[in-house]
Amino acid sequence: MAQAPTTPTLEQNPLREWLILPRSPDPSAMVIFGASGDLTARKLMPALYNLALNRYLPSGFTVVGAAVTPWSDEDFRKNMLDAVTKYSRTQPVDHQVWSSFAEGLFYLPMSFDDGEAYARLGACLEKIDRERGTGGNRVFYLATLPDFFPVIIKQIGAAKLHLESQRGTTAGAWSRVIVEKPFGHDLPSARELNDVLHTVFREPEVYRIDHYLGKETVQNTFVFRFANGIFEPIWNRRYVDHVQITVAEDIGIERRGAYYEKAGALRDIVQNHLMQLLSITAMEPPVNFDAETVRDEKVKVLKSIRPVLEQDVVRGQYGPGWVAGQPVKGYREEEHVAPDSIVETYVAMRLFVDNWRWAETPFYLRTGKRLPSRASEIAIQFKSAPHLPFQKTAVVGLTPNVLVMRIQPHEGTSLKIAAKIPGPVMRMRTVNMDFFYGSSFLIESPDAYERLILDCMLGDPTLFAREDEVERAWGLVDQIEAMWAKQPPPRFPNYAAGTWGPEEADALIERDGRRWRRP
Ligand code: BG6
Fold first, then answer.
1. In 3D, which of 55, 1, 5, 91 has the Cα closest to residue 442?
2. For 12, which DSSP code?
3. Which residue of 302, 326, 361, 441 is most buried, as measured by CB atoms within 10 A?
């Protein structure tokens, strides 16, 4: 009988050494607003459970679930166990770990605008501080519909739940708030939300989540660029022909029609995930890895983006088609979507980063739903060799060097290089030099939420978006939205589900003599 694979020990695989944390988070309690919702079940609870499993959580760590659903503590524990059983990346659930973790799960039914409920929450947190030793440290996690964010923040402020002085506990206790996306729906609303946040929390206490920053491969981009000596000298306009950044999804909008109708691909992916990938790819080397230094450099990139011209953005919407051999509906036939919706499910654009390093080097960005496959990657396409001395040599599909950082799936990095085909004559073709996370490290990468929640507990906001980053990204999105508002309504749908987007997107890059990669 085949043996189930076991995780190698530290001795068997020294690369697992990273599993040991250099420092542990302080004991704390986390209040999850929206604890009966989908995000808590799919992402937050499995992430917390896996942190518990790897012994990263501090002793006494406690979660208070807060939501309108009238659950008891027992209901909450049961529902969360179901969620972890269904969605945890590690299976089966370790019941010993779960039972001790579940002792720290509590639930408070509440309406988010009810001031008295926050007084009850405060009393509950104080009791937890006394009984579970959480020391007055608090993480407030806003996992509700975005309309509730300002309501909850104001109520936390009014009940003074964030103030150490009100707790009568350990001096030096901290409060932090994690804000889920979408962070506003345009620049004015993002600014308004930032203003509300700052009436209660200081900027270093605000953790705006973009889960792409928690992905191992996105963080590896920092390491790849700044811990290797050989790439930085060629990471610029002299050697790079252009950059392609892709976030492609084969899924549709699933059951999120009501949200997506207000968001579209521009707000859902471009404003956050694509802008983050762009800034990490294009930023200058930071002098250190402190949160402020790293984010300063990222913001400089966003500030250098040239205003986008009309001909440099293409939008699309999928019609019916086939994905993975199955017929699928068009966007307009999805649940909670208007039959004449002009919301975009695809965006492609050409951007320029106007600075010394990147002047006139195009960055082509694209994202779409219902494309043929799920693939997120950053591809750096280098210029061709200036002269080929092999005039009489047979060349089989020789292409310029491309460095691809695969964010998902098949996480890793590959470099396309020219190589001689073995044999007595000189023939050449392009081959891949590949690094795969899975086979190199022999461990499964943690989920992005595990890393980000742990960072928040440790008080490290490096991988969270700062106020000015979010606002700059909205500035670009608003500029595009304003441009679209002046155009006649687009003729949607303009690509069939299961294809690589509208023809205009191909034209956008082909007019520069280049082509989209097929990830
Ligand atoms: C979310 C978007 O932020 O990212 C979703 O709202 C999208 O529409 C998801 O599907 C993609 O994330 P991932 O981690 O699956 O690439």
1. 5
2. T
3. 302
Q: Nearest residue CA, atom 9 of ligand 1? A: 269
SS3 track for 458-515: HCCCCCCECHHHHHHHHHHHHHHHHHHHHCCCCCCCCEECCCCCCHHHHHHHHCCCCC
pLDDT top residue among 364 and 437: 364
Q: Which two tokens stand for residue 292?
A: 């402020």
Q: Which residue has the tokens 């999804």?
A: 249
Residue nearest to atom 14 of ligand 1 (CA): 212
CA-to-CA distance for 510 and 503, rounded, in angstroms?
A: 10
DSSP 69: S
- Can you give the pLDDT at residue 170? 57
* Closest C-alpha residue for ligand 1 atom 8: 268
| CA 495/CA 477 separation, integer angstroms | 22
pLDDT grade for 19, boundaries at 50, 70 and 90: low
Q: How far is CA 259 from the centre of its chain?
A: 18
Under DSSP, the state recorded for 211 is G
Would you say 270 and 367 are in contact if contact means Cβ atoms under 8 Å apart? yes
pLDDT of residue 3: 44
CA angle at residue 127 from 124 to 133, to 5 degrees? Answer: 125
Q: Is the dihedral of CA 450, 148, 192, 264 positive or negative?
A: positive
User: Which candidate, 45, 13, 8, 11, places its Cα nearest to that of 453?
Assistant: 45
- The closest of 228, 494, 446, 503 to 345, measured between CA atoms, is 494
- How many C-beta atoms lie closer than 10 Å to residue 465's C-beta? 27
239: Cβ contacts below 8 Å, ≥ 6 apart: 382, 383
Residues paired with 364 in a beta bridge: 244, 350
Q: What is each CA distance from 72 to 44, 106, 249, in whole angstroms?
A: 19, 8, 38
- Residue 207, amino acid: Y
> Does residue 249 have its Cβ closer than 6 Å to ligand 1?
yes
